[in-house]
Amino acid sequence: MTNPLAFLDDELAALRTQGLYRWPRRLTGEQAPVCVYDGRRVINLCSNNYLGLANDPRLKEAARRAIDEYGVGSGAVRTIAGNLAIHEQVETRLAAFKHTEAALLYQSGFTANAGTVSAILGRNDVVVSDELNHASIIDGCRLSGAERKIFPHKDVEAARRGLAEARGGADGAKRRVLLISDGVFSMDGDVAPLPALVEAAEEFGAIMMVDDAHASGVMGSGGRGTVDHFGLHSRVHIQVGTLSKAWACLGGYVAGSRTLIELLMQRARPLLFSTSHPPSVAATALAALDRIEADPALIDRLWDNTRFFKAGLARLGFDTGMSETPITPIMIGDEAKAMRFSDRLFEEGVFALGIAFPTVPRGKARVRTIVTAGHTREQLSEALEACGRVGREAGLVV
Fold it and tell me: Which position among 98, 149, 154, 245 bears the catalytic label?
């Protein structure tokens, strides 16, 4: 009998031939600036643990206390029997942190984007979206059924044309139009031109939505994100964030008006059909908020390390693309070459992941690095030395 899944062998073989087949490395022990992957002790430049809170004693203790008090699971989705008081405490704190009326927890940052876009738009509506927006935004747009107008990366004039087209025609005024952008782009580390995008949204009466997953805890006053960084409070209608990066735990959230949050509680499918956060995760998020608000020096250390590492890569002659944040890609172009570069760095004691299509466009492969507040200068200097050795070996720098 013919195996209907035989084509999978061919697909995997093609990935291996192209040098693109990857399997995630296995972490043994804690997520830290230096840790053990695949049995090798390496400097970790892959983690989104921006502020080094994944092993913070106060966060660990908060999680333990929550398990002792509430147990290990919520037992149901929020709208049935899984709406815990601690969930609402996190939402109240997040709303205050983001300077919005309300906030709503999702099970992940991915579902926060996908669930929100698909809940507020329908087939008669239009979404105007940056071409490099996160995959969760793309999936949310597809799920909504709305017409999609994709503009070239950070091209405000192209975004304006998309908004004008959305408002054109006999039904233009009746359509819901959403303008959406990442705040910090996760693969290039650059920052969206939010002030100009917000002005365009206001001119055309569009909803403005920002995914601040990689800016929350990183940019703005006290880590409040790009909306705060640019002073756009109340002018961005929907802010999406994550608890799995600077907050070092798990989940996503949406912050905005109370009306928006009430509507999402009725319609957002991830909330309606997935079990809510375990109490320990919610408690960890609260402890992370406490830690970030009490110690802004964490963010200062993150940026000091970022500037040090970027300057070192520039001295070595690497192309770091458009990066303005702790996400710093080493641009290579060729997919197989990027993967070989990543593998050689690992052999030299540095874990920096090779990124290729479909995560980034073809011909735009890179090795993506992220420094954290937890890295020491000695660790970053050692990583730079390894980058230089491997870069010269590969002919990327001289």
Answer: 245
pLDDT above 80: residue 171 = no
CATH topology of domain 16-45+296-394: Aspartate Aminotransferase, domain 1 (3.90.1150)
For the domain covering 57-294, report its CATH number: 3.40.640.10
Q: What is d(CA 238, CA 43) in angstroms, rounded to the nearest whole number?
A: 36
> Tens of pLDDT along 1-23?
889 999 999 999 998 887 778 88
Identify the three-state secondary structure at position 45.
coil
Active site residue 245: yes
Q: Which helix (H) or strand (E) holds 159?
A: helix 156-167
Sequence ranges of the chain with CATH classification 3.90.1150.10: 16-45+296-394
Bridge partners for 254 per DSSP: 104, 240
Say how far residue 332 (Cα) sits from the centre of its chain.
Answer: 22
- The radius of gyration of the chain from alpha carbons, rounded to an integer in Å, stands at 22
Q: Are 96 and 255 in contact (CB under 8 A)?
A: no
Whether 93 and 100 have beta carbons less than 8 Å apart is answered as no
Residue 337: predicted pLDDT: 92
pLDDT at 247: 95
Residues 237-255 have a mean pLDDT of 96
The CA distance from 92 to 83, in Å, is: 14
**214 catalytic per annotation:** yes
- Among 214, 277, 310, 337, the one annotated catalytic: 214
Catalytic residue among 186, 216, 244, 276: 186
Residue type, 165: E
Residues of the chain with CATH 3.40.640.10: 57-294
DSSP 8-state assignment for residue 224: B
d(CA 320, CA 183): 19
Look at residue 1 in the predicted model and tell me its pLDDT: 80
